[in-house]
Design brief:
It is a single chain. The protein is of the alpha+beta class. Helix content is 28%, strand content 26%. It has helices spanning 22-30, 61-70, 87-96, 105-111, 114-123, 137-147, 173-182, 245-261, 294-303, 307-315, 394-407, and strands at residues 11-15, 34-39, 52-55, 78-80, 131-134, 151-155, 165-167, 189-193, 199-207, 210-219, 236-238, 267-276, 279-286, 332-338, 346-352, 361-364, 371-372, 385-391, 409-412. The longest helix is centred in the middle third of the chain and has 17 residues, at 245-261.
Length: 413
């Protein structure tokens, strides 16, 4: 594939170098971009793929400041992270290097707090579930007296389903309150009414102030009962069968409000939405690229849009052609996971991979020698393996994914 002349000789500072970040680093290299990767793990996955690598914690600003002051000796043209929940750090570092072309720092900070972002959406009349900040059992009882059940307790400042509980009554409520509190750095938690309906992951670009909705994945919660009270997603499917033209129009208008009011002229907006009584509600939004292979693999494979390439160009302040943003196809893609509930307790003696190679991507999150100490999945970081497949239709893609995971043998001694 020919390199783009406009990106040749550019330098990109990439925050995060784990397996999820590899597609982004490789895309930058494909574009002829010089990559400097930071990660707290000295043996990070992307270390051997980057032009320069430094063991620096990407969640500690003071470490990044020290790196910039003492080790960075090359002009940086842009700062990005692929699927890491640190928009305010991306913005801070880009500001520090005078290359912030996407998300203003104040907007990034607001987006990372689930309560503050809800207050923002409420102010601007965006459909959201009922919610409240809570600090006592009385607050919870008062909320349920008004809104009923089910409810969701969550920390205001965490991701990947950490600290979240879906509750249908007040049994053991103290336990779930403390669980949410434990997973909050700022020690603030909120309550939200659970709206029962199809949930969809969305990912959109803002380019010169205009919204381009590219990716819609129907989130798979069919196995949710076995994870309760934790809310655990088992992958998802593209294209969406739940996003009607009406809902796409609603989302576009809401994202126009968000981008305008948060002064975002170029950037990425990730959304978690629910369709409730045929109306679109935004559960959360994030001003960053998604993780879990959605932006890196699923959207490009389904739509033909080179999502990472566009995101990289935005962060380098390079013009995007409208043709690059056109959805060229709607191929059937499915993502599924294997969980702790699916394997036995004990030491992993052997892993037998399926012989069938009819898939796009597969990932193991465990290794031979690891000890499985629990059969309970508490958050998305506890998954065992993933598989992404392409099918002739939706059912075919799902069946291929499920068959791969059934054939994946994890032998415990």
């Amino acid at each position: 594939m020919p390199m783009e002349v406009c990106t040749l000789g550019k330098t990109l500072l990439v925050l995060g170098g784990g397996p999820d970040q590899l597609p982004g680093v490789l895309k930058a290299k494909e574009m002829g971009i010089y990559t400097i990767v930071l990660d707290g793990n000295p043996d990070a996955h992307c270390k051997s793929y980057s032009d320069e690598f430094y063991s620096v914690s990407i969640k500690h600003i003071e470490q990044i400041d020290t790196f910039i002051k003492e080790k960075l000796n090359k002009k940086v043209d842009g700062v990005i992270a692929f699927g890491v929940d640190i928009p305010h750090i991306i913005s801070y570092v880009a500001n520090r290097l005078d290359v912030n072309y996407t998300i203003p720092l104040e907007s990034a900070i607001l987006s990372e707090n689930k309560f503050d972002s809800k207050e923002f959406m409420k102010k601007h009349k965006i459909n959201i579930p009922p919610y409240s900040l809570i600090s006592s059992m009385e607050d919870i009882k008062e909320f349920t007296n008004i809104h009923g059940f089910p409810i969701v307790l969550k920390p205001v400042d965490n991701s990947a389903a950490r600290g979240i509980s879906l509750l249908y009554d007040l049994n053991n409520i103290n336990k779930y309150y403390e669980y949410a509190l434990k997973n909050s750095s700022c020690k603030k938690i909120m309550i939200e009414k659970y709206l029962d309906g199809p949930q969809v992951s969305t990912e959109s670009f803002v380019v010169n102030g205009k919204i381009y909705n590219i990716g819609f994945a129907d989130r798979n919660y069919k196995d949710m009962d076995k994870f309760l009270p934790n809310i655990i997603e088992n992958g998802g499917d593209l294209p969406s069968i739940f996003m009607s033209d009406k809902h796409k129009f609603q989302l576009e208008k809401y994202l126009e409000i968000i981008s305008k009011e948060l002064n975002i002229k170029n950037g990425v907006i990730k959304g978690d939405i629910v369709i409730y009584k045929d109306e679109l509600y935004i559960i959360e939004f994030a001003l960053r690229l998604s993780g879990g292979n959605f932006s890196t693999i699923e959207i490009p494979e389904s739509t033909g849009v080179d999502f990472l390439k566009i995101a990289i160009k935005l962060h380098l302040n390079i013009q995007i052609d409208e043709d690059e943003l056109l959805i060229k196809e709607n191929k059937f893609i499915s993502l599924r996971y294997k969980f702790l509930e699916d394997i036995k307790l004990g030491m992993i003696k052997k892993i037998n991979l399926p012989k069938n190679k009819d898939y796009i991507s597969s990932t193991l999150f465990v290794n031979v020698g690891d000890e499985i100490k629990s059969n309970k999945t508490h958050n998305h970081a506890n998954r065992v393996a993933s598989i992404i497949t392409k099918g002739l239709n939706r059912e075919d893609a799902i069946n291929k994914a499920n068959k791969y995971l059934e054939d994946l043998e994890i032998i415990i001694e």
